[in-house]
Amino acid sequence: MIPLAVAMFAGWSQENFFKYCREHFGLDRLADYCTEPVSESTEVINPEYRQLDSQIKSSQGKLNRLLTRFATLTLETSIEPDKVEYFMQKKATCQEEIEAFQVQIEGLKGERRQIPRHIKVKDLTKESQFKQLSTQSKYFAGSRYFC
Q1: Cα distances (angstroms) measured from residue 94 to each of 11, 23, 65, 100, 130
Q2: Helix 47-72 and helix 81-114: axis angle, to 10°?
Q3: Can you give the pTM of this predicted structure?
Q4: In terms of domains, do 31 and 48 share one?
């Protein structure tokens, strides 16, 4: 347990430190919510590319689950024609779903290849454009120690 006097001294030290920073470094100006436009020459990830990439990852996850289900399908009963027929139908249905997902993923990858991954901010649509937080107030306001 920390003695009360030590805890009080630690609190006063922190208060004095922040008071000093507010007076000499403009600490209160560091936290603001101003925004400014992003430079038009800045490259960002294309939103269309990002959306297609997300769809591919989602489909790939579903495909992996289907592959796992296909691999775990086993015939655990005796080999009778009607039971084997039902088992083969389940396997065939699962195989068709797997092939459909593989075709879908290849189509999405083909679309993604046609779209550039990075584009400049000026090429974004109006809905996709964004602003950045102001950086001007994030610098310490001059001091003889930080020249």
Answers
A1: 66, 70, 11, 10, 44
A2: 160
A3: 0.60
A4: no
